[in-house]
Write a structure and sequence with these properties.
With 202 residues, this protein is an alpha+beta fold. It folds into two domains: 89 residues, no CATH class; 104 residues, no CATH class. It is built from seven helices and four strands, in the order αααααβααβββ. It starts with a helix and ends with a strand.
């Protein structure tokens, strides 16, 4: 049983029109417009201020776009379905994670926050520095303490910094001592660093 090529072409476009209409319904049902009321009203006002010529251009532009979508409807429908499904969490979670100065290999030892506070408390006879743990840095320490949850562990850390390279043939920078060494404390939760407080750096 054979069919005229025009039959297959017409069937292709018919399926495309049907799927585009279904796509519009799906967008209205599942796609949430996150724009504020102010933005929506501003866009509506701009639309009303358009001249008849601008409105005609916008209409023809929409028609041209719609025609192109129907021509390449398999690609357009695949993109639509992907957008409605939403992006997997793993696609962006790793980029949203906070960046810390310290890493796991910089951790030194587990510490008790109360003992750290006792050792780090400042005693300045001239009262130029707040007589609190870590002095002027105390607000940062308090923020770290607030982050602690049951099961969390506090560690001290020290970054390795830049180590001098005195090997023969080295053409890079050379320092007499390591640079960028940072000391501080971190909170470890489920084997991951979730909070950091810096106390000393060069």
């Amino acid at each position: 049983m054979s069919f005229d090529p025009w039959f297959w072409l017409g069937l292709y476009y018919l399926i495309g029109v049907a799927l585009v209409l279904i796509g519009r319904v799906l967008v209205k049902l599942f796609h949430k417009d996150k724009r504020s009321d102010f933005v929506k009203s501003a866009l509506a006002a701009l639309e009303e201020d358009k001249s008849p010529q601008e409105k005609r251009r916008a209409f023809f532009k929409s028609m041209a776009t719609g025609s192109l979508i129907i021509v390449v409807w398999p690609v357009a429908f695949a993109v639509l379905v992907n957008e409605l499904r939403g992006k997997p969490t793993t696609a962006y979670t790793k980029y949203d994670e906070p960046k810390f100065t310290s890493e796991k290999n910089d951790l030194i030892e587990i510490v008790n926050p109360h003992e750290v506070e006792a050792i780090a408390k400042i005693f300045d006879p001239k009262k130029r520095v707040p007589q609190l743990p870590f002095g002027h840095l105390n607000p940062g320490w308090k923020e770290l303490r607030k982050m602690m949850r049951p099961g969390d562990v506090m560690w001290s850390f020290k970054t390795s910094g830049y180590q001098a390279n005195d090997k023969e043939g080295n053409k890079g920078p050379k320092y007499e001592a390591p640079r960028n060494i940072v000391h501080g404390y971190v909170i470890v939760r489920s084997r991951k660093i979730v909070g950091e407080f810096l106390t000393q750096w060069d």
